[in-house]
Design brief:
Layout (H helix, E strand, L loop, with lengths): L1 H9 L12 H14 L5 E5 L8 H15 L4 E5 L16 H12 L15 H14 L10 H14 L4 H12 L10 H8 L1 H8 L1
Parallel strand pairs: 1-2
Amino acid sequence: RQVVTQICHDLGRLAHTGSWDDPVRANMEALSEFIAGRNAPVTVVIDALDEAEDPADLVRSVLGPLRQQHPERLCLLVGVRSPGGDNTGAEELGEAGEALSDLTAVLEATRIQADDDLRWKRRDFTTFVRNILTNTANSPYRTADRTAVNRVAEVISTLAGRSYLVAGVAASSVAERTEVIAPDDPAWLEELKGGLLGVFRGD
């Protein structure tokens, strides 16, 4: 419901509904009418599909029907987070994996892996981690020595593999501590080596 409402709101096509109306159906009809009335194809970008309340249902009940109604007029760009890595399969991603499977099956979507060798830049990944460390409110890294910040950022970006999810959680966790962590702290390194589960356990 929230996703459909947000799309319609951003397009200025929110349906006018009464207390007896189904807002999802009304907004779906308004969105479909908008797409059909356009001369050029409409591109809709949905990020973090896996964070939706029911990502698989969103694909089957909303995105799928819209795509079927307007196969030549609707372009969908949908982001689904994963733990990272070249061999990550849908079965390893839980709800995100179910949504990913539905994207490729129901929508006949092409999967573009953002962390493959063609698109991957280690420097960008480390910068992402460093920005979390230095821009989080009350983070000790805001005033820490630059070398110390860089060392922690390098450790996180190395042990997080290619997962922005793991790196983001790990960086946020240390940024919320009161003191700068030693980059060779054994307990912390073990948490990072445990992947997402290890980072969550240490948070």
